[in-house]
Amino acid sequence: MKKLLSTITITITIALILTACSSQETNRTSPEALENHDLSQEEMFFKIGQIEREMLDKSKTLALEDDVYLETDDFIIRKSMIEARTEQSDISGLLRGDSEETSVKYQLKHETLYAEAIKQGFTVTEEEVRNLLNSEIENSRNSVNFDEVTKPFLEGMRKTLEEYWETQYDMRKQEIVISKYYDSLRETFYFENGYENYDETLKEVFDSGRFTENHFPGEEELFQTHIEISKYAEQAEEAWQKSFDKLVDNLIAKQNIRYSVNSSFRISN
User: Fold this and answer.
1) What is the pLDDT of residues 203-222, one digit of tens each?
2) What is the total count of domains within the chain?
3) Strand, coil or helix: what is 221?
4) pTM of the model as a whole
5) DSSP annotation string for 8-24
6) At a CB cut-off of 8 Å and minimum separation 6, what does 104 contact?
7) Which of 57, 89, 159, 201 could form a disulfide with 163 if both were Cys (CB 3.0 to 4.6 A apart)?
């Protein structure tokens, strides 16, 4: 998926909270967040799990027409989901600014990209989704912060690890489809704009005549080559990200968004 998550995942789903906080490179939740809510890390994730469970219960008991935040011709975003993601974001302290606005924008981008990917013919198999879920289960089980993060979260949800990830089936299914669409767009952009892959760029540098059979580059020259390739790659990726962001904005602008009386935030086009 490359940089897709850093581009469109503005808010946090519970799956991302667990994944992020289970990483060895990830620090504990900010002291400010814990101080603001007067919760230990374990208490915080227990509460986040409770909110997730309540959201799932509402999705089963509330009539859809009574739980609409916004709808388009392609999808519906539920009020219970926005409320849950907003509250979870506030508790975790991982977001800055308006949590509801951020949650709505993320969900709108996610649903819009998924709808467009389906229209473009991208699909996913049961095996692909199951393989991803099995990997998520294994990563969660082996996480260094299992006792501090995953365990209290699951206790709050009143579910086992396997049961929780099963609730994420549809979300992961959508993410795989979006990822395929994203990778296809990126590959087309690189090709149409003359950007090279890393290996092709490296070959171009060595074929330029700077390095010959009688002259193998020294450490300084290799370092300079690395800098050149890195700058080239960064420029290409920056151009791609701008193009992708513009595409997403255009797709959202084309959506016929209809807000319900439950909506307290409106996307400005």
Assistant:
1) 665 566 555 555 555 666 66
2) 1
3) helix
4) 0.78
5) H--S--HHHHHHHHHST
6) 69, 70, 77, 82, 265, 267
7) 159
